[in-house]
Specification:
mainly alpha, about 180 residues, about 60% helix, 9 helices, 3-stranded mixed beta sheet
């Protein structure tokens, strides 16, 4: 009886270990075919010290945040690797980009990962959703950003000034929702 269950577990383990590399190959081929179809080039990969989880870049970001210089990490990435960089975020591919063509795509690709944490703060909008919802929220927001309206910012000045007057000058932590 025990030998039978051990054999079953061994067979299952063999199947899992044997199929996983095939799954990785299939996923890689599917990605490359989709990229070729959309005429996308492959971005340069960031050279992680920890290639499995990418903790080195994560720790750099944490340290930069503590120093109040969190943008310097991305500035370094872009100046070293170009406008779009492929990084590893806890074992998942993460594309870091400053290229407007990549940002204007219909499918941003962050909603599954970011949706749960961003919705309580900013709701379902262009920063927290993908594809159809993103398109719809983008259509709603686009008229606000016509060239004439963006050039005429004086209408916002009074509201921004009121909000900034509520921010404590001592640098203490505040609840931003209370200010809006």
């Amino acid at each position: 009886m025990l030998n039978g269950s051990i054999m079953a577990v061994a067979k299952l383990l063999f199947v899992i270990v044997g199929l996983y590399p095939l799954y990785l190959i299939w996923r890689s081929v599917r990605y490359r075919l989709a990229a070729r179809k959309l005429h996308c080039s492959t971005p340069i990969r960031y050279k992680h010290r920890d290639p499995v989880f990418g903790l080195d870049l994560f720790l750099k970001r944490v340290e930069a945040m503590k120093l109040g210089e969190w943008l310097t990490v991305d500035e370094h990435l872009f100046s070293t690797y170009g406008k779009t960089v492929l990084t590893n975020a806890f074992g998942k591919k993460q594309y870091v980009t400053m290229d407007s063509r990549n940002i204007q795509t219909e499918k941003i690709g962050s909603a599954p990962m970011n949706h749960a944490v961003t919705v309580p703060l900013i709701g379902n909008g262009s920063l927290s959703t993908d594809v159809e919802r993103w398109k719809r929220s983008r259509q709603l927001v686009n008229p606000i950003f016509t060239r004439a309206q963006v050039l005429e910012l004086s209408t916002f000045e009074i509201y921004v000034r009121r909000m900034l007057d509520l921010v404590p000058p001592d640098g203490s932590t505040i609840d931003m929702q209370r200010l809006c």
